[in-house]
Specification:
With 406 residues, the protein is an alpha/beta fold. The chain has helices spanning 37-50, 65-73, 83-103, 116-131, 145-151, 154-164, 205-215, 236-248, 264-276, 291-300, 317-324, 355-366, 369-386, 389-404; strands spanning 13-15, 24-29, 54-59, 107-111, 136-139, 169-172, 190-192, 221-227, 252-258, 283-287, 303-306, 329-331, 347-349. 44% of the residues lie in helices and 15% in strands. Strands 1-3-2-4-5-6-7 form a seven-stranded mixed sheet, with helices on both faces. A six-stranded parallel sheet has the order 10-9-8-11-12-13, with helices on both faces. β9 (252-258), α9 and β10 (283-287) form a beta-alpha-beta unit. α1 crosses α14 (389-404) and α3 packs parallel to α4.
């Protein structure tokens, strides 16, 4: 296995050890920090590809953490062309040009943005690669790309179409999301590489035994888990209001919310809502959790809740992680989630911005112990069959190998 060098040059380029016989792949995408689904997925993609190819990485997150935060906050504050963003992207474009000119890779793998300013950068990368006759494959880690194209003005639609038609392939998260590239990339060149649960997050037999023991005689109360960045359009305020509805009905219920705040304003608003509803003893904010802290939250939770209407949503890694631990899930049918969750089979769909729906779903899941355990078992089996790290790694390597062969 090729070991990734920890040292990153000041221009954001990370280079793998050279091998004469292996094809060279330039990866253009964000690495942690910050921690979010895309950076985690890119980190794993680099690791997987490095086992088979010589990989050089231009880290899009280097110097762009503030722009990532603003992009995540919501549609009203996303992708604004601040001077800092523009300067950072110019520097990154120079790093990409240098990599293409110096390394002459056999393929460029790029994580495609779903915002206007972000895709403007992507289009320029694709154009640079085309100048050097380097084929490009684009990977979209969300479900908004189709709307980005349809909602764009005439000029930007032309720019997206011209850029996408230069791609030798596009990668999406689910079959349903293939439609985002309709009319832009040939259907036989749109591939599915599903998201995954990292091996280190998977529960052990001891973890399952602990959960089974904790669930005995627990009906009548519940511990909910929200595990995602604290973006208002992810629905965490609706989860807090649902806790109030449930407690008003006499149910003993609490909620753990774990993830990064996107702004101080968002944190203040949420904490004021908790105080206003007198939920200080029922709602806990944990910030970013990783490793054993994340495992502890998953081990002790009863139900996972993510009523998202976040416009860039794909298939959240946290959703798959919760399912791997046997948690029934309460989610919206949004992005690519509908390709993973079936309503009243392995989870419950709720409407966005509907705390009462969330409260009803919690009651439905917990009123029947046998139903709960059936859903729990179905989620564990589904993740084991479709969403393992090994399966995703094999799928990505297979796609890249096929594109390198032409």
């Amino acid at each position: 296995m090729t070991i990734i060098h920890d040292k990153i040059r000041s221009n954001g380029i990370r280079q793998e050890p050279k091998s004469v016989l292996r094809p060279k792949v330039l990866v253009v995408g964000p690495l942690p920090p910050p921690i979010n689904g895309m950076t985690i997925a890119t980190k794993h993609a680099v690791s997987w590809l490095s086992e088979h190819f010589d990989v050089c990485v231009v880290n899009l997150a280097a110097g762009l953490e503030s722009s990532f935060s603003s992009t995540l906050r919501g549609p009203d504050r996303s992708g604004s062309p601040t001077l800092r963003k523009v300067i950072s992207r110019v520097r990154l474009l120079f790093s990409i040009w240098y990599s293409l000119h110096k390394l002459r890779p056999n393929l460029c793998y790029i994580t495609l943005s779903q915002s206007k300013l972000g895709f403007l950068k992507d289009g320029l990368v694709i154009a640079l690669a085309s100048m050097y006759k380097v084929p490009v494959v684009g990977h979209v880690h969300g479900g908004h790309f189709g709307e980005l194209y349809r909602e764009a003005g005439r000029f930007f639609r032309f720019f997206i179409r011209a850029s996408a038609q230069k791609l030798v392939g596009a990668i999406v998260l689910t079959e349903r999301l293939k439609g985002m590239f309709a009319g832009l990339v040939r259907p036989d060149r749109v591939y599915v590489v599903e998201n995954f649960v990292a091996d280190e997050v998977l529960p052990s037999e001891e973890d399952f035994a602990h959960r089974r023991e904790c669930l005995k005689g627990k009906w009548g109360g519940a511990r909910l888990l929200y595990l995602s960045n604290l973006i208002p359009s992810k629905g965490y305020l609706d989860v807090i209001r649902a806790i109030y509805v449930l407690r008003s009905c006499g149910m003993s219920v609490s909620c753990d919310l774990a993830g990064a705040w996107m702004s101080e304003h968002d944190r203040v608003v949420a904490e004021e809502l908790v105080r206003e509803l007198s939920l200080q003893d029922s709602v806990r904010f944990h910030g970013i959790v990783t490793g054993e802290a994340k495992r502890t939250l998953l081990r002790n939770a009863d139900v996972f809740v993510l009523p998202t209407y976040y416009r860039f949503e794909g298939v959240p890694l946290a959703l798959l992680e919760a399912m791997a631990w046997g948690l029934p899930v309460i989610v919206t049918n949004h992005g690519g989630i509908g390709d993973v969750v079936r309503d009243r089979v392995n989870g419950v769909f709720v409407q966005p911005r509907a705390p009462e729906n969330i409260a009803d779903a919690v009651c439905w899941l917990l009123e029947d112990a046998e139903r709960y355990h059936c859903i729990s078992t179905a989620n564990i089996q589904l993740v084991a069959e479709r969403f393992t790290e090994n399966r995703s790694a094999q799928s990505l390597v297979r796609v890249i190998s096929r594109l390198l062969q032409g």
